[in-house]
């Protein structure tokens, strides 16, 4: 009887391992989530400014001079558009900079990132 129970437990553990093998994200998927790919967009400065006014000035100030968030007036000298896209998408600092991937479209984030990358 004990052999049947042990065999059953072994079978269940094997099935569980196979399910995990096919459902857990792979290394490539985890890497993709860690560094989102910026879509190609054409800069629309007016739209970027509107998104920034609606989403960013509470923390970065109405002139991007910084308040509870850092000064962004010359952020383009420090970070590339791709780095800015990643930061805006994922957030940063354990909640200091929230993620906007669920609040803005990828194209809006890319447009803002391009616009900010030109701030030098």
From TrEMBL:
SUPFAM superfamilies in the record: Cytochrome c
List the GO cellular component terms: membrane
Instruction: Write out the transmembrane intervals.
Output: none
Query: Per its record, what are the GO molecular function terms?
Result: electron transfer activity; heme binding; iron ion binding
- The organism's superkingdom is given as Bacteria
> Which one Pfam family would you cite for this protein?
Cytochrome_CBB3
Coiled-coil stretches noted in the UniProt entry, renumbered to this chain:
none
- Its name, as the record gives it, is Cytochrome c550
């Amino acid at each position: 009887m004990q052999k049947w129970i042990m065999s059953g437990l072994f079978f269940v553990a094997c099935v569980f391992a196979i399910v995990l093998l096919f459902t857990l994200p792979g290394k490539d998927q985890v890497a993709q989530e860690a560094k989102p790919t910026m879509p190609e967009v054409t800069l629309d400065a007016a739209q970027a400014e509107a998104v920034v006014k609606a989403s960013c000035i509470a923390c970065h100030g109405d002139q991007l001079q910084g308040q509870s968030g850092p000064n962004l007036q010359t952020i383009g000298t420090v970070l590339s558009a791709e780095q800015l896209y990643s930061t805006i998408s994922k957030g940063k600092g354990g909640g200091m900079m929230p993620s906007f991937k669920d609040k803005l479209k990828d194209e809006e984030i890319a447009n803002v990132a391009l616009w900010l990358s030109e701030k030098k």
